[in-house]
Amino acid sequence: MELSVYYQNTRGLRSKTQDFYTSSLSCCADIICLTETWLNEGIQDGELFDLNTYEVYRQDRNLATTGKKDGGGVLIAVNRKLSSRSEAAWTSPGICEDMWVSVSLNPSVRLHVCCVYVPPYATEQNLMAHLNTLSNIVESRPDDRFLIVGDYNVPKILWTLNNSRNCFIATVVHDRLGECLVDGYSLLNFSQYNGVRNCNGRSLDLVFSSLTDVKVTTCDLPFVEEDLHHKSLNIVVNINDECRLKNGTSYSKFKFHHANYDIINREINDINWHNLFLDIDVDAAVNRFYSIIHQIIRRFVPQKKINNKFPLWYSANTKSLIKEKYKFHRRWKRFQNNLDYVNFSNARKAVRLAIKKDYRDYVANTENNIKSNCKSFWYFVANKRQNNKLPNTMSFNGNVFSDDENISNAFSSYFGNHGKEEEGANKS
User: Fold this and answer.
1) Distance CA 106, CA 382 (A)
2) ∠ CA 407-408-412 to the nearest 5 degrees?
3) Residue 183 and residue 70: Cα distance in Å, rounded?
4) Which of 412, 419, 7 is nearest to 208 (CA)?
């Protein structure tokens, strides 16, 4: 099975959200990795992606760990036809920013994707903290596959193609930071696959993998304008296993506002929780609790099938161009004919232009018809406000918490006090 990955160092998205959004709509990549997003809590996932198509995982720059307010930030978006989950516990300490997402390709095959940004002021100790965390993750999962992409900002390495292994090896390393990076990945037996060079003849953005069949090429149609020092990349990962994909055109969503909460409350109250959790450890108790709750949700919360083939505002012409683009792409993949690729490339550009025009018309119509059709306006706003990201900080009793342990303790205090208040009210 082939997986397509798009990578770009975007050099900030806050002023490019509309261009990025329309570009992402025409993207066929299974996974999208971005560095230097410069995003914050004021930018919602729905402003960047169609959330019916992509599951978005973000790690915006954290002031508490990096000491910087702006810049940085990494993002991974995974097509919903793939089963994915965030691995927040794998984040390395210090100023190197990384985001981990696990993709389950079948019950026994998992690909772990990491998007990394190492700032230019990082020291050898900072890089070692990232590499040590990576080493622990890889060594504890010897049967899994790994793909690490990102901006390492290590310019003093000359990467040379090794034809026998079809990857790039470091033939010249001019500083200790580069030696640290090369040694770290060599010990893991990972290969580096990006030989694309920037305007200075250097490769700052690197692609490491435990897999042996990875191809990296420049992207001739980047999402947003490229930075001269960072070329956008198309990465094709070939995994020689049978993989199961979910239906890529639709998925089901729970309609919690239509749930029968009277029955749900009765079901929960009728359960003898004490006996269920008797003589089992805390991990087994948590798993049993979630299993029961999920079963109740599936029984008493109705579901709605969401069709995510095209946004509502796509014109008939745009839909026709998209189908034509897929036709040329299939022909090119099958016959590897240069003419088919030229036709596919031209169709892809036409699709992107058509989507941008449709989106501009949609926004203009929404603005012009606010008085006569305010429902359309609020639908637009609600759609953009969608966000899969947990906030970086949480507040409780006038205190603000930014690290996982203190946030968890604050939740524990809140629910502990809430339970005591209910118990006191029942006694009175």
Assistant:
1) 34
2) 115
3) 31
4) 7
Q: What predicted TM-score, i.e. pTM, was given to this entire model?
A: 0.74
Question: How far apart are the two ends of the chain, measured CA to CA in Å?
Answer: 64
Tokens of 412: 């524990």
- 336, 281 in Cβ contact below 8 A? no
| C-alpha span between 383 and 49 (Å, rounded) | 10
Segment 51-70 mean pLDDT: 82
What is the tens place of the pLDDT at every residue in 114-163?
999 999 999 999 999 999 999 999 999 998 999 999 999 999 999 999 98
Phi, psi of 89, rounded to the nearest 5 degrees:
-70, -15
Closest CA to 387 of 45, 7, 22: 45
Query: Strand pairing of 2-9 and 31-35?
Result: parallel
The span from the CA of 220 to the CA of 349, in Å, is 10
Distance from C-alpha of 332 to C-alpha of 287, rounded to nearest angstrom = 47
The three-state DSSP-derived secondary structure of the chain is CEEEEEEEECCCCCCCHHHHHHHHHCCCCCEEEEECCCCCCCCCHHHCCCCCCEEEEEECCCHHHHCCCCCCCEEEEEECCCEEEECHHHCCCCCCEEEEEEEEEECCEEEEEEEEECCCCCCHHHHHHHHHHHHHHHHCCCCCEEEEEEECCCCCEEEEEECCCCEEEEEEECCHHHHHHHHHHHHCCCEECCCCCCCCCCCCEEEEECCCCEEEEECCCCCCCCECCECCEEEEEECCCCCCCCCCCEEEEECHHHCCHHHHHHHHHCCCHHHHCCCCCHHHHHHHHHHHHHHHHHHHCCEEEEECCCCCCCCHHHHHHHHHHHHHHHHHHHHCCHHHHHHHHHHHHHHHHHHHHHHHHHHHHHHHCCCCCHHHHHHHHHHHCCCCCCCCCEEECCEEECCHHHHHHHHHHHHHHHHHHHHHHHHC
Distance of CA 322 to the CA centre of its chain: 24
- CA distances, 122 to each of 154, 207, 346, 419 (Å): 10, 19, 41, 46
pLDDT given for residue 117 in this prediction: 96
Angle between helices 338-368 and 316-335 (to 10 degrees): 160
Nearest to 120 by CA among 170, 184, 72, 171: 72
